[in-house]
Amino acid sequence: KAGVTQTPRYLIKTRGQQVTLSCSPISGHRSVSWYQQTPGQGLQFLFEYFSETQRNKGNFPGRFSGRQFSNSRSEMNVSTLELGDSALYLCASSGPGGLDSDEQFFGPGTRLTVL
Amino acid sequence: GQQLNQSPQSMFIQEGEDVSMNCTSSSIFNTWLWYKQDPGEGPVLLIALYKAGELTSNGRLTAQFGITRKDSFLNISASIPSDVGIYFCAAPLLGGATNKLIFGTGTLLAVQP
Fold this sequence. Notes:
The structure holds 2 protein chains of 2 kinds.
Chain A: E1 5-7, E2 10-13, E3 19-24, E4 31-38, E5 42-50, E6 53-57, E7 64-68, E8 74-78, E9 87-94, E10 105-106, E11 110-114
Parallel strand pairs in A: 2-11
Antiparallel strand pairs in A: 1-3, 3-8, 4-5, 4-9, 5-6, 7-8, 9-10, 9-11
Chain B: E1 5-7, E2 10-14, E3 19-24, E4 32-37, E5 44-49, E6 55-58, E7 61-65, E8 71-76, E9 85-92, E10 101-103, E11 107-112
Parallel strand pairs in B: 2-11
Antiparallel strand pairs in B: 1-3, 3-8, 4-5, 4-9, 6-7, 7-8, 9-10, 9-11
C-alpha cells in the first residue's frame, strides 16, 4: 500500500506571496490532518479534514486554510506569506474508524522557506 | 490546556546501550503513540498503545501505557547507529470526532558506533 505523498517536497517563496501544498492520503483513509513543524514550536496541529469537511482547527491565523476533495486528497493554502511561516508542513492520514483512526501516518513533508 | 512533557531532551549514547525516555501529562489520554523522525522526513509511527498498563513491543522497542493514563515510556534495547533520530510521543485530543494529535517536545537520540 502506498504511503502518504506530499508535493512539492521543497518550496521557496517570498514574503507576501501565497502557496498551495498538496497531500494524497493512504488509499482508503478519509481523514487528513495538517501540522506545522518548526524548531521553536515543535509540531503543531493546523487542521483536520474528514469527508471534505473541516472537523477541527488549530490556533493559526486565517491566512492558513485548507480543503479536501471527494477522493480524500487535501490541499492547504497559506496566503500573504510571512518569514515566520518557514517550516516543515506535514500531512497525516488515518484509517476509516475505530482504534486505528488514532494512528496517523505522516507524509515526508513540504519544506517551505519564505525569504 | 493539554500538553505532553517529554524527557530527556537529548541523549548521547554508545552503540549497544539501552535507552529510556518518557512522556508525562497532567491530562489523561486513551491512546499513546510513539513516533521517530529522521532529518527532513515525516514522523514514522513506531508503537501505538490503547490500554492503561499495556506493554507493547516492536523489535528492540518496548513502550508502556502508564497505569494512571497520564504517562508513557519508550525503551530501546541494544541501540544501533540507525536508531539516531528524534523520538516523539503523541496523544489524540480527547473529546469530539477529531484526529488532532498533541506532540511531546521530542527526544534527540545520538548513537556513537
